[in-house]
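Q: Here's a chain of 218 amino acids. Please give me its 3D structure as tokens.
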Amino acid sequence: MEAIQKQFGGLDSLKIQLNNAAMKQFGSGWAWLSVDSNNKLFISSTPNQDNPLMDVVEKRGTPILGIDVWEHAYYLKFQNKRADYLNSIWTVLNWDEISRRYESIVPKGKFDDWQELKDFHKVMSQTFHPSEKGDLGPIKSRSGEMVQAAEKLAKAKIPAEFDNKEVRAAVKKLESDSKKLHKLVTSKKSSDSAITKSLNDLHDVFHKIIGLCTHEEH
């Protein structure tokens, strides 16, 4: 809600903009609320089966809310009245799940007491997102810094609210995978594809930690 308020001026404004995107999508398709590489929300629409994760879209990102505007989604109840369907869909959106997806991408203020995780996230963000566009320069020059941040994280005390067996294991894997990535980067025999895969795997481990720490039981 804080992000929606800051970027769209409130929920009513978001609803208007997202519904407009859905109304303007000709034929079958989707309207999306997604998070871009700078952790900012954005609205888009795509035709047919396309989505913001694909290379064919104008702006890429990770979707956290999708509104289906294929006719099969609403015809039985609303016939061809797409606007009525779009107004009604806001009464059934699962905001707990949408927020969970957002938080799995964008660490909340709840991590303020875990500075080492925030420090690692900063390096990860500044190296991973360029790689999504094919630019491996940042990670090739900063893989050692990534290792240092991971080692610092592994040695630090995990805040009590997040401290459990799964999180500890994931933090340890983050450290070992950072070292594997650095070894690939510093090896003259490593291909860009191998480095990219290793960085993607490391990114997945980081977000596993975020996901483990945002579940309701924590």
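Q: Can you summarize the key feature?
A: Strands lie at 29-35, 41-47, 62-68.
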